[in-house]
Structures are given as C-alpha cells and as structure tokens.
C-alpha cells in the first residue's frame, strides 16, 4: 500500500486524511499542523517540513487555501519540489487558479512526477462522510493510480481532461452555486418584504421547476435565520475571483459572477465574511429594510 503525504489539515483536510487512515493507508503529516495530534493518535506519522514529507511519500496530497499557499508548499524553502522522488504522484485538492495548476503540473513533470488537480465539492459534511465530488485534471494513468484514494474520500471522481481542467470545472461549479444562492436570496427577500409565508413558498417551489438542493438547504437556512458556516462567504468570494480571473484569461464575460462577487465583497465589508455563503440574503435584507 502506498505511503500518503497529506498537507493541509483544515476543516476539509483533517477528515479527509482521517478517512485514509481508517482505510488502512499509512498517512504522513506535518508535525507543525494544528490537527497533528488527532491524526497522530489515529496512527499517522509526522515530519518536520514539506521536503522531508515528500521524500518519504509515494503520493502527496495538498488541500490548502489558495494558489499562493499551494505554490509555497511546492516551490518554497524545504518545499515538496526539493524532496519529491521521480515516480511519485502529486495531487492538489485545493481550489486554485487553473493557470497555477498547469504551472505546477509542468514543473513536476520535469522531475518525473505526475500531477493531478483534483478540487472537491461537498463541504465539511462531505469531507467527514467521504462523499465529496472530485473534479480531476491530468492524465488517465495518474487518475487510475489515485482512484482508490478518491473512492475513500468521495462518492464520485471524474477525470475531466488535461491539467487545469479540474480547477476550471470547480470554478464553474462555484459560479453556478453562487448565482443560485443569489437567486434564492433575492426571491426570499422579495417574498419576505411582501409578507409571503417563506415556509409555504419554499414548499411550493420545491415541487416545481425551481427545485434545487440550494433552494432546499439554503432556503431553510434563510427561514431559520441560521448562517452558521457550512462554507464561509469569504472562501466562496475567493473562488468567484478565481472564476473571474479565468474569464479574463479566456475573454469570456462573466457578468452574473461579477455581480455575486461584488455582493460577497459587500458582506465582507460588513464584517460578515465568516458567515455561510447563504448570508447573501443578509445583505439583501439590509438593503431592503427587512428586519
């Protein structure tokens, strides 16, 4: 069984790594990680830096905040690039710019290392339950090698295309999710201002063509005034900016995406970036004078 180096034990990475440990994989982590103790207690092994971790691993998985963090892990002092062995596999499961994923792929290819960009959707609940949707860019051979791990961490893994295709797909996913939340938030703000019963409206809409998982889950959040984060607004704003960057690179006008990103910026300006992304309703409620 291959040795797995896992970098990034945050709200998503920690349960993903734990699921690999529970499945019997030898998982290796950084001793400086805040979640190191729980992984060590489960049977993981700790290393002092990314270089030594990579040198001792057959497959390296990263899931960190954004492109600069992934680049620091790979290219920084005592980074993965300094220690990784020819024949290893590098899998980045962060959500980053497609151009960054392509750059990392090219640099690692020069060291005889295959790389996959494999961002995920499903949030903390999906990470804990091993039910993530995994969108993958890279070649078939590397995907086949990674598939047993993907099947532990997720319910579906699809090879979309070459390097960067996974990140492009994730950007598209976040665009659709963001704009759908915006639509639900606008509809609920209008209904609330018009004194329409939100619970009855949600029930009716879920029975028709407007039905969606976002209407179901986030509509209920709005009714309950519960914006405890499942996915923080500040993180979704970061993802929308990645999509806008890709739009500029390919000369595709993303007007809806730009509007939702601007509304998320306004929420951050209100000091509400830690709230769930369904808090787009909070902004609309304030602008509409809704108590």
List keywords for this structure.
single chain, elongated, three-stranded mixed sheet, N-(1-d-carboxylethyl)-l-norvaline Dehydrogenase, domain 2, alpha/beta, six-stranded parallel sheet, Rossmann fold, 14 helices, 55% helix, 291 residues
What does this structure look like?
The protein has 14 helices and 9 strands. With 291 residues, it is of the alpha/beta class. It has 2 domains: 159 residues, Rossmann fold, CATH 3.40.50.720; 121 residues, N-(1-d-carboxylethyl)-l-norvaline Dehydrogenase, domain 2, CATH 1.10.1040. The protein has a 6-stranded parallel beta sheet with strand order 3-2-1-4-5-6, with helices on both faces. A 3-stranded mixed beta sheet has the order 7-8-9. The longest helix is centred in the middle third of the chain and has 29 residues. The mean pLDDT is 96.
């Amino acid at each position: 069984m291959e040795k797995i180096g896992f970098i990034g034990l945050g709200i998503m990475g920690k349960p993903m790594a734990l699921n690999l440990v529970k499945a019997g994989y030898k998982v290796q982590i950084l001793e400086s990680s805040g979640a190191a103790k729980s992984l060590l207690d489960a049977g993981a092994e700790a290393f002092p830096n990314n270089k030594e971790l990579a040198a001792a691993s057959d497959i390296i998985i990263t899931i960190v905040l954004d492109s600069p963090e992934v680049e620091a892990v790979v290219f920084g002092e005592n980074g993965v690039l300094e220690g990784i062995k020819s024949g290893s596999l590098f899998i980045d499961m962060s959500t980053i710019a497609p151009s960054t994923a392509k750059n990392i792929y090219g640099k690692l290819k020069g060291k005889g290392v295959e790389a996959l960009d494999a961002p995920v959707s499903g949030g903390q609940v999906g990470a804990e339950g091993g039910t993530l949707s995994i969108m993958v860019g890279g070649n078939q051979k590397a995907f086949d090698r990674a598939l047993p791990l993907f099947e532990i961490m997720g319910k579906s893994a699809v090879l979309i295309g070459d390097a960067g295709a996974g990140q492009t797909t994730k950007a598209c996913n976040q665009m659709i999710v963001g704009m759908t939340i915006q639509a639900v938030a606008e509809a609920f703000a209008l209904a609330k201002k018009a004194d329409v019963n939100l619970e009855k409206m949600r029930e009716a809409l879920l029975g028709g063509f407007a039905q969606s998982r976002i209407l179901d889950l986030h509509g209920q959040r709005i009714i309950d005034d519960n914006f405890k984060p499942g996915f923080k607004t500040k993180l979704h704003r970061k993802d929308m900016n990645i999509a806008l960057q890709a739009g500029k690179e390919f000369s595709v006008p993303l007007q809806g995406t730009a509007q939702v990103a601007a509304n998320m910026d306004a929420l951050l300006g209100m000091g509400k970036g830690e709230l769930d992304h369904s808090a787009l309703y909070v902004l609309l409620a304030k602008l509409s004078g809704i108590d």
